[in-house]
Amino acid sequence: MEAVANCSLRVKRLLLDPKFEGYKLSLEPLACYQLGLDSAVAEVKLRDDQYTLDHMRAFGMYNYLHLDSWYQDNVYYVDQLGRVMNLSVTLDTALRKPREVFRLPTDLTACDNRLCASIHFSSSTWVTISDGTGRLYLIKTGKRGDAASEKWEIMFNEEFGSPFVIAHSVSFVKSDVHSVAGLLLRVEKDELDAKGSGFHVSLEWVTITEVDKEENQRYEIFRRRVLRGKSVPHYAAIEPGGDGLMIVSYKPFTFMQDEENQLEENEDGKIADKKKDPVYYWQQTEDDLTVTIHLPQDITKDDIQVQFSPDHIIVALKSQPPLVEGKLCSSIDHESCTWIIRDNSLEISLIKKDEGPMWPELIVGDSRGELIMDSSQCSAVAERLMHLTSEEMHPNPDKENPPCNAQELEECDIFLEDSTSLCRFDGNTLKITHVVNLGSNQYLFSAVVNPKEMPCFCLRHDIDALLWQPRSDQPDSMWEHIATFNALGYVQASKQDKKFTACPPNYSYAAICECLRRVFIYRQPTPLSTVLYNRKEGRQVGQVAKQLVATLEASDPILGFQATNERLFVLTTKSLFLIKVNTEN
């Protein structure tokens, strides 16, 4: 078994700006367009039995607006009639109503324990859809956005048990065979978890493969694998070729097959340990030692062979390998040693040559024996160790120089998930091959920069937010630092009502969306068209980073949020808003 590579994320210093001075609030107006929806979004509120933080993260904060990264400025949502609706934007001033591209065959309202419907665009011509009732659809779309060639056709649909949402999916071809792999996220009741929340999180990694390619194109399940953990992953994505999986999570995930095998091994080990009773028991005083060996039935004095020497002992039964043999821990008076059979046991008395010192073991390197200590010896040991213990749980002997003062931390620097890790799983061995301990690098959001690559993830580094692109084909440098959002790590922490965070593929800005109405936009520093001076330092400022605020004319909660190079899309229950951020790509 190969060792797990403990990796670190390598920051590109050239992408950091140590002289960043902050964002300047800009009052320039942002063009905002509103489209009313014919039918409301198919929002599914949390039920009374979905009360944990994991339920809130997985389903309560779900993004109901889906961006097609293969075709810019195309967004999708599912309405209450079970229709998949698409809005394609070319001109902001000539917006058309969202159009229906597909209708789910099942009645969504018939399932009491359903989740929100979910969509993921696996490639430029393939889509995976969950209706929220536990059924998965694999759909061939043709070239999306082109009315002449676009046709959504179901190629596979099957029930996968309890309801789930699609976390990620990819389309790939191996040996001329087309496959689609998807990650299905569930939060399930765990009857064995009495002390925790009573739930566990499962990620089912399912691969659907093409069969009967020549006659009639048909797809079947090729493989199903399940990972289980105790927290909803911040980020989970399959590699482009379907060979591996990357997960960012607070609690670790393991494949169920490995967990079951490990449980079996542990049980076998426990049984084996129970079967392996000590070969001998021994006691000691300051003067002598007593060794007791249990004997088989019908053993007589003539069947036993015991040999003593100053620092060696051999105990054997006739015509059998020695029961006990080896070098003694210290020297004995071998001429004074004796042995006797008593109650089907052999008792050996050894006289220490040097009185006083206690032996740590009877035979050097032999762990088959068990030392038995009487109560007086236990009390003596406890008394000798008394000066090393304290009645206080944490006495803190160095009170004058405490290592850390939590009161000096600002509120935005404090977050609970300080043991978050990034793991890469191999799809064949189902083992972790690479792991990064993210420590205080708080996860912020994910974004698709190149749809042919894995989604990027954004982490907080000090006050900045750094965007990382996974490179599954580069095992020695698997995560690349591609962009920096200056001070965004600090800024986002102050937004207590934030619901979504996003950035466009060209990372020209980052945007934070609150639960209601407000959207904050933080542009990357850009050169100034006019001369601006810093009065304190008496120097000219060459570029400035702007903060903009958009306030929506809507009272409904925000359900979805997506960013493209030119626009922001904001979805509420009954409206879809477009905010023009950049005039050109």
Structure write-up:
This protein is mainly β. Helix content is 8%, strand content 43%. It contains four helices and 40 strands. The strands form nine sheets. Strands 2, 33, 34, 35, 36 and 37 form a six-stranded mixed sheet that branches. The protein is elongated, with a radius of gyration of 34 Å. Residues 258-265 have low confidence and may be disordered.
Give me the secondary-structure topology.
Elements: E1 5-7, E2 23-25, E3 32-36, H1 53-60, E4 66-67, E5 74-78, E6 83-88, E7 99-103, E8 118-121, E9 126-130, E10 135-140, E11 153-159, E12 165-174, E13 177-189, E14 199-211, E15 218-229, E16 235-238, E17 244-249, E18 254-255, H2 256-275, E19 280-284, E20 288-294, E21 304-309, E22 312-317, E23 322-327, E24 338-342, E25 345-351, E26 369-371, H3 375-385, E27 421-426, E28 432-437, E29 443-447, E30 456-461, E31 464-470, E32 479-485, H4 488-493, E33 498-502, E34 509-514, E35 518-523, E36 526-534, E37 539-551, E38 558-563, E39 567-572, E40 575-580
Parallel strand pairs: 1-28, 2-37, 19-26
Antiparallel strand pairs: 3-40, 4-5, 5-6, 6-7, 8-9, 9-10, 10-11, 12-13, 13-14, 14-15, 15-18, 16-17, 17-27, 19-20, 20-25, 21-22, 22-23, 24-25, 27-28, 29-30, 30-31, 31-32, 33-34, 34-35, 35-37, 36-37, 38-39, 39-40
